[in-house]
Amino acid sequence: MINYRKAAIVGMGNVGASIAFALMQKDLYSEMVLIDVNAAKAEGEAMDLSDGLPYVGSMRITSGTYADVGDASLIIITAGAAQKPGETRLDLVKKNTRIMKSVIDEIKKTGFEGILLIVANPVDILTRQAQILSGYPESRVIGSGTVLDTARLKDEISQHLAVDARNVHTMIIGEHGDSEVPIWSITNIAGVPLTEFCELRGFTHDHQAAMNELYENVRDSAYKIIERKGSTYYGIAMAVARIASCIVKDEHSVLPVSVALHGEYGIEDVHLSIPAIVGHEGVEKVLTIKLDDKELAQLRASADALKALQTE
User: Fold this and answer.
1) Sheet containing 192-193: which strands, arranged edge to edge?
2) Can you list the positions of beta strands (E) in the chain?
3) Are 158 and 272 within 8 A, CB to CB?
4) What predicted TM-score, i.e. pTM, was given to this entire model?
């Protein structure tokens, strides 16, 4: 039986620990199990997090093994080699494929019936592999996708226009990586189209040049952070907490998570970040939204880049 108030995180590096901290603060679960190949590290993180529980709510945070997570409603997989300076997410695929297989093999032994949320990079390829290796329905195997990238774009637009980021409605789709695609055609500020809002704010500069700069800032954000501090983890932790909240609260929210495509946008046999409705059972529906010709071509090129790597 699934315990819908129980989650597990596999991998207690900076990303896994930050996700655990974000989930604790959200008070979404009554039980959280932390797993790592270094059992002492997982135990230490559980102890440290538990010290803050009196200021959050009632929750049990423990370290454990795969035998402890068979009844969890959500398992978040962050385990994998870290991205190094100068290394793209796609460079990680061979190293992290082997790790993903070992993790999925252990999870399958438990009779797990909940949702897998893949965070390890390259997330789109590893989400596809997790689904194939597990044999679970596609709706139950989700990648964190471009939820973080979308937040980064919202923040860039927010700062550029000096407007609350919560009023910025936009999305990045495609690969969580260098070929990701900003969907400018649907971008709006509180319902006002982007270029029109720029004019309302008195910005009369070259809109296209400004949009290109904002996109490049988002695309290169991870590289800049890694160059300065070695890895990224706070932003993705908040993105994962957002996805988990959609699942726990059955929000039916639209998020650009990594999902399988079967002809949508003319794309097949690949996992990409695409707007999808996310709720209690995972991905409820993959949405086919209207893209302009340039965006559609870029999305298909992003899919081709990932497909080429899958066949290697």
Assistant:
1) 168-169, 188-189, 192-193
2) 3-10, 31-35, 60-63, 72-77, 115-118, 141-143, 168-169, 172-173, 181-182, 188-189, 192-193, 253-262, 268-279, 282-286
3) no
4) 0.93
CA distances from 67 to 100, 105, 145, 251 (A): 17, 12, 28, 30
Active site residue 176: yes
Whether the bond between 122 and the residue before it is cis, its omega within 30 degrees of 0, is yes
The percent helix, strand, coil of the chain (3-state, each to 5) is: 50, 20, 30
Fold of 3-143: Rossmann fold (3.40.50)
Catalytic residue among 169, 176, 262, 271: 176
pLDDT in tens, 237-293: 999 999 999 999 999 999 999 999 999 999 999 999 999 999 999 999 999 999 999
Contacts (Cβ under 8 Å, ≥6 apart) of 213: none
- Domain spans of the chain, in order of start: 3-143
